[in-house]
């Protein structure tokens, strides 16, 4: 039997990411999305079936393996990332008198971006940047770890 329910959700636990010193109240899911600025290989076929390649730089949440690229000078993508994407889910979410199961709440897709300030970065994130000899930059709601420092990330 299909049942429709609407109302305001309530979450009593606090969610926190180990690298950001902010506690989020009444939040169902806290997601850290990690992307890297990488080289992407594009393959082109002409009318006679000959293949050529071009390269572009792009942000991607997927790890692009540049080892197999045709042009050796473009094999620049990092093999390991200092951080991974992760989602933290609240254990108990209530909707009116109903308790929603984690199997349901982890499928909810509505989200918002939280503005980060430099003071909200944890010592763990600062140590991670130092360990990998990376600059840490906060710019327009995003945190950048960069081996090639730029005050304006692309």
User: Structural class per helix/strand content?
Assistant: mainly beta
- Terminal CA distance reads 50 Å
Strand segment tally: 9
Order of helices and strands: EEEEEEEHHEE
What is the helix content?
Answer: under 10%
Shape: flat
Question: Widest sheet: strand order?
Answer: 1-6-7
The value of Rg in angstroms is 21 Å
Mean pLDDT: 82
Q: Specify the number of helices.
A: 2
Which stretches are low in confidence, meaning pLDDT under 50 for 5 or more residues running?
149-154
Strand content: 25-35%
Q: How many strands, which pairing sense, and closed or not: the largest β-sheet?
A: 3 strands, antiparallel
Any overview of this molecule?
With 154 residues, this protein is mainly beta. Helix content is 8%, strand content 31%. The chain contains two helices and nine strands; from the N terminus they run βββββββααββ. The chain has helices at residues 102-105, 123-131, and strands spanning 9-11, 29-32, 36-45, 51-60, 86-89, 93-95, 98-100, 135-139, 142-146. The chain has a three-stranded antiparallel sheet. A hairpin with a 2-residue loop joins strand 8 (135-139) and strand 9 (142-146). The longest helix has 9 residues, at 123-131. It is flat. The termini are far apart. The relative contact order is 0.20. The model is unreliable at 149-154 (pLDDT under 50).
Label this structure with key terms.
154 residues, mainly beta, 31% strand
What does the secondary structure layout of this molecule look like, with pairings?
Layout: E1 9-11, E2 29-32, E3 36-45, E4 51-60, E5 86-89, E6 93-95, E7 98-100, H1 102-105, H2 123-131, E8 135-139, E9 142-146
Antiparallel strand pairs: 1-6, 2-5, 3-4, 6-7, 8-9
